[in-house]
Amino acid sequence: MFTALKQRVLEANLLLPHYGLVTFTWGNVSEIDRQQGVIAIKPSGVSYDAMTVDDIVVVDLDGHTVEGVLNPSSDTATHLVLYHAFPALGGIVHTHSRSGTVWAQAGMDIPALGTTHADYFYGDIPCTRPLTRTEIDTDYEKHTGDVIVETFRQRDLDPMAVPSAVITGHAPFSWGKDAFDAVHNAVVLEEVAAMALSTRTLNREIRIQQALSDKHYFRKHGANAYYGQQ
Amino acid sequence: MFTALKQRVLEANLLLPHYGLVTFTWGNVSEIDRQQGVIAIKPSGVSYDAMTVDDIVVVDLDGHTVEGVLNPSSDTATHLVLYHAFPALGGIVHTHSRSGTVWAQAGMDIPALGTTHADYFYGDIPCTRPLTRTEIDTDYEKHTGDVIVETFRQRDLDPMAVPSAVITGHAPFSWGKDAFDAVHNAVVLEEVAAMALSTRTLNREIRIQQALSDKHYFRKHGANAYYGQQ
Amino acid sequence: MFTALKQRVLEANLLLPHYGLVTFTWGNVSEIDRQQGVIAIKPSGVSYDAMTVDDIVVVDLDGHTVEGVLNPSSDTATHLVLYHAFPALGGIVHTHSRSGTVWAQAGMDIPALGTTHADYFYGDIPCTRPLTRTEIDTDYEKHTGDVIVETFRQRDLDPMAVPSAVITGHAPFSWGKDAFDAVHNAVVLEEVAAMALSTRTLNREIRIQQALSDKHYFRKHGANAYYGQQ
Amino acid sequence: MFTALKQRVLEANLLLPHYGLVTFTWGNVSEIDRQQGVIAIKPSGVSYDAMTVDDIVVVDLDGHTVEGVLNPSSDTATHLVLYHAFPALGGIVHTHSRSGTVWAQAGMDIPALGTTHADYFYGDIPCTRPLTRTEIDTDYEKHTGDVIVETFRQRDLDPMAVPSAVITGHAPFSWGKDAFDAVHNAVVLEEVAAMALSTRTLNREIRIQQALSDKHYFRKHGANAYYGQQ
User: Where does the Class II aldolase/adducin N-terminal domain lie (chains A, B, C, D) (predicted)?
Assistant: First the structure.
């Protein structure tokens, strides 16, 4: 029934090894069909090499499987929280890409240090607070989504202007208007995370000028954008 | 006689260059057949490019060759000590993979800093104490195995919950329920070693929360695991 | 009309992903035909995979399109400033290559630390001063070119002896006698930027001896060059 | 006349891009035929992609071309000094491989930190003293060879036990019993240089134990070697 959606989600998942963002079965991509009230997502623990469109799992917005025989990604509950809280999201990606994960492990925001970052992310990519023991022990994956939402609300961030977060002690989540846009943002996150890591070995304090960040972000986004063929 | 075992060990050895874990002839993989009382292991100093199933050497648990014409890996005695001491081990891998070797050279445990680590290793990957001059001069490879066993016993570690160690001044050993599982763990060790190296340039002290380590380890291992298709 | 020029510029642009200098549509190469009074340049935001010679845009030296239907690179104004100010330039490259961008983000010159650098760059690769808010808000891309020209004039640098600069908070520009020479210099910049980053982790102060820099630069450049088959 | 020698030198040179040790035309490999009193070496500034056996240049031990139409490598004089001073050398490699060059730029020996190093190099890989201005200005390439020889004599090093050096402000030279052995050592140098760089970010002081260095070196070299199939 959901073949087109599942095909897109399969292709977006296969981009993760293509871009070097995953090892083994790590990582997952989903996309939502808000009219049908479903998301399609990678199955849990299945190899990218062997994955077919029939392996993709379709679940409703309460997480019940409506199509597919495999278990959905163990991170499905995190995806659902984000789709519920952020109506503009069309696709979500989770990876343990190396440099993004390093910032998550360090418990630090990925700082906005240059125009590569500013072209895609309006300000720092936030790192969530540590979960409490209670949040970890019960409904862990749901609470991972909750702490992302809490972070964006407390800092008054627009999730479409800062389409990623890193989870303390864990790894990044990225999103976008659809599954492919989310993967695109996950690739950029990894690149700016790597650049920021090396920049910090030369200069512990420097940040991008606010005016330069504004310029680069808004020449690609919003009503006055002039980058590309729009 | 041991063709199936040798074929598996050949294939597992060929995964080492596939995953970028070895240079030249470095590294080796073995697997044990506990019923037959033998292990199959890579020959010493033979190129992965040219290796065939006939080159794999089968030795008994005292290290005497029972099938094959080449010398077994010079590290065979280390493998045998581990198989004797840890009955759950089915396969063992030794590599000089870059980041794992860096932690060994630094004489430091690979610290558990995130869920990537916790998904596979329950706590730090231990670094062994330096061998004494006497241990190095006589039966060096056997003593390398002994010091791994000593480390796990002194720290009361379960070798199947922490399926790797790094040897001071040397490099990692990894293991698993069979040769392929051991290679899998060697790949993960290299990835978490690289992540930990970069994390330490940002934050010298941080560690993963114990509750988060527990959560990730036990959602993949043991009776209550829910990751994957089990 | 400008097919040969556009074909060269297409090929030079395709070298950027070949050498690993770009992600997605980032980066651009141009070449000038000074007799015809035009430059050919990459279109804005177009994928390298799909780019054909018809996508390359030809603009006059005031930036008006004379051939092509797509928008030229958003950085076209920067290229034009450099071609106007530096008559020896035949080709220009802009990338966000990782290590070069790190030095730009750190706001630091790429220091001349060895003969690899000295073979191509006579002295440090300069980092421009930050642009003012006014320079950023109006005619940003033109001002990016202006600040490169200002840097070379204030430091009395020959742009053909130091064929690159890094822009504070942004990324590198490189150039050369034609588009292919410019790409060549962009590859070298990335390599020496990476080497310099690691060198600074070992030694914060060291620099190449001036006599050694002279020797290597002038064995490859100028009347007394003896490197190669000239 | 020297077709077989030139063919070997061609193949050994082509291994440099295969192993990722060179960018563009950088680097060169030579091999000596001591009975004929000649060396074959890469031509200067020629691309590896296009190189054929006819491009390889044969020069006598005074550096005069005896076969070939191209200029020999600009580093030929360095090779000749080493062949004259060290009678055991059969092949020599020069590269600007990234991590080896970093140690050269830092003006530091590559320290022996682990068994990967000890398997091939008996002790630190020495860094030469800076050349004087006079040594640079006249017969620079010859003096580069001289300072390597001086370093080995002053430190009483056996060039076959430590088959590499790094030149202050420049890059590594490696050698071996023939051209292929020299390339092998150049690959190992790059790997141990990279490992040592990262190890020093964790631990600024640690070194390999002397007994462990002895053990690994002598299990692969000399009368009592037992590694491999010898």
Answer: 7-197
